[in-house]
Amino acid sequence: MPPPPVLMEELVEEILLRVPPTEPATLVRAALVCRPWRSLVSGAGFRRQYREFRRRAPPMLGVLCNNYGNRRTHFGSYLSRFVPTSSFRASVCGGYRTLEARHGRVLLRRRMMGNSKPCDLIVWDPVMDERWQLTKEEGPVWFHWNAAVLCARAGACDHLDCGGGPFIVVTLGIHNRNSTMSLCIYSSEDGSWTKPTYVAWADEYGNVDEEPTALVGNTLYFRIKNGTRVLGYDLTTRETYVVQLPPKDEDSTTTLITVEGGGLGVAILHLDETTKLSLWSMEASPNGDMGWIKFRAIELEKLLSVDARSINYHMVGFAHCIGVFIVETDDGLFSFHRRFHRVRKVCEAEAEECNDRGICSVVPYMSFCTPGFA
């Protein structure tokens, strides 16, 4: 029997470009077929084409779950675990809490009691499996603070293939000596921190919430004062301003989101008989004033087919750009799209990720993943 005909390289490339981005393991198996396929899949040209072929946001490869350490081994600390939603797998070092993920990078914070410094941060690229320990030079000592990581190329990058490139880390914190709220920025290109920039007195805006930030255009938003306000920082002009968030009950949870039009939004999870998730967007009124408008309400009990009392109302995660929410229930971790309401169980309640003293927060991780070989 004659050997089967060899596929033309152009045809192989067209086939592999159509592999779903949530199945990077398929590309790995293709690369192991022969040397020509391996060279094709691991090449920079294919990697760029693979991302541009879809011309949309990267897929969600998994979620990072922050668990309280168990009483025997990690009491008083956090365990951050990666729960896959694709064929991609990753391992997070213990003792760190995941603050957020953006542009293919994850920001990890060493969990310590009391005052701490921004040098207790690590930037991690799960796809490249590279970590950057932020410089340990002297910096401000803060009590309440939060941080965000993002690509340093700003408007010059489409963020489809910027992994391994320069990044910045923006921190907002309250100084433990003079009770002032300040901003401080780390640049991977310079390998150093800027001097703290005064924002306001802490008494004016309260504490800085340790919750994921939202990036809308060139403005980075931090949640402050227990989810009642948001501080916007313009990365171009370096100006800051504070906006009052929609009213909420004492037992409700506020999560910063981005709306479909690209603006700032808020999701508020209300704990009542039906456990509603109300979605708000910031829009201009006829006279030009900015205000909040509630545009949707999702009844989670009906959507997830679970008892409302089983929903963890302290924890709501959101994947920006693709509009996917993550919620925890007694039955496990669920994800659903804000508009299409496609529901998926991410992990069972009995799984180790969901069962080690419970999940306190989740951070979705989005990136393209194509194999690279030395």
TrEMBL record:
Residues 9-46 form the F-box domain. InterPro entries: AT5G49610-like_b-prop, F-box-like_dom_sf, F-box_dom. Pfam families: Beta-prop_AT5G49610-like (PF23635), F-box (PF00646). Residues 167-373 form the F-box protein AT5G49610-like beta-propeller domain. This is F-box domain-containing protein. It comes from Urochloa decumbens.
